[in-house]
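Complex 491.
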Amino acid sequence: MAESPQSGMLIEAFDVQLFRENTESALAKLEKHLADLSVRGLELADPEQLTRAARALMTTEHDRPAAFDEARLSEIIDLYIRTGIQVHSPGYMGRQFSGVVPLSGVVDFVSSVVNQPSSFYEAGQLPNVAERIMADELNGFIGFRPGTFTMVTTSGGSLANLTALLAARNRAFPGVWSHGTSDLGAVVRPAVAVGADVHYSVARAAGILGIGEDRVVRLPLDAARRIDVARVRPALDEAERRGLTVFCLVASAGTTSVGAFDPLDELAAVARERGLWLHVDGAHGASLLVSDALRHKLRGIDQVDSLAWDAHKMMFVPAPCTLLFYRDREHSLGAFRQTASYVFDEQPSMYTELDSGAKNFECTKRPMIMTLWVLWAMYGKALFAEKIEYLCRLTQDAHAILEEQTDFETLHRPEANIICFRYRPDWIGDAELAEFQVDIRNRVKQRGLFFISKVDVDGVAALRVVMMNHQVTTDHFHLLLDEIRKAGQAQ
Ligand SMILES: Cc1ncc(COP(=O)(O)O)c(C=O)c1O
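Predicted structure with pyridoxal-5'-phosphate bound:
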């Protein structure tokens, strides 16, 4: 008979008093980290040096139980915090990762300890119920018909886009799941149509699905970098003439590059007319739905077939937390088809009805909804709306500030919290403009005060600011412009 191992190490690793002490010391560090509102960018470490530092913190004891070393744990946590992207600092303006609402970190911590994977009700009862509640709550802003839509959580927006495209592909070509693309013969060439600024994960999904990146039809954009509806029908006709069978139209609600919102109501009309699945990649911008003032940017969302919504971006919870909505509940079952007696019960019950395992790619899945649901339960939508509205206003203010500067050029009017621009002092010629922006971005990063990103707009590099932190003010933005000037003049 196997006896439970009683080595000192196992006893220590599961000791609840030690657990409390470790938690308290980590908590003290996090409290200090959150309270530090100094303007700072990213301290980018040499990977070799960081590897050496990390290795130096590992026990060399392998044959005997290592004694618990509190100082080592403390150093590991310090190193982790110090080398991270400083999402809570006002110097952080570069990416879409959010400075999470601290309470959501507390919930994530509880999730990690109780470890309730959420693809199956029996493994994570409250997470599954919370998913259903949040689906209803958020659908209040989307407007799908109650009782006929559904929502499933996925590990990130990229996976949500892939999952939705799979469901669309399987609806259009039902035999492909079982028989592969050879089932279509040589004449049918499935294709998807996307806005030219669509996130790369959509083209990647096309590659994974065997559609081929070459069969991604890129729809032209208007001056505001939204899909130009007037040119969609001709582009689809042209694709058809090339022998492509477009089955899905992908629109963006908040493009990654400039945060543009495609005109969903007009695209829904095109999709209906042509029998296309309309998927909306709202990974970035769907969160604007919770704001009464900003919801109109997604007008027509109630008519789309599927919507990917990253709560780990503009709902400020830890990653990943993505919600994939389907207007028609039945379609959610079309993405994957498997039998597996160890998880999928043939006889549905009131418990298995909540299982999402058949609808999401993951088998073991984080109970990611818990962070969002608890914030929602504690604060309601106002917390999110207030923060999102402030960030969008701040970005408008940043645009106005840029317009007043003679040495900067704006590239678009921001629709959300992303703004792209170029530093263009009169001594920089057109030929050097793109490289200059890349150099500036890198130099700003190296100087360590701010973290911004870079993106190509119309094929030319530009600086990109994403406002994710409500601690950032217009004063910080002025400071950033000064920093950019210094970086540019230090050529
Ligand atoms: C518009 C858009 N779609 C999809 C993604 C991918 O989401 P995730 O990083 O959650 O996979 C992003 C991420 O930046 C995005 O901006």
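The mean pLDDT is 94.
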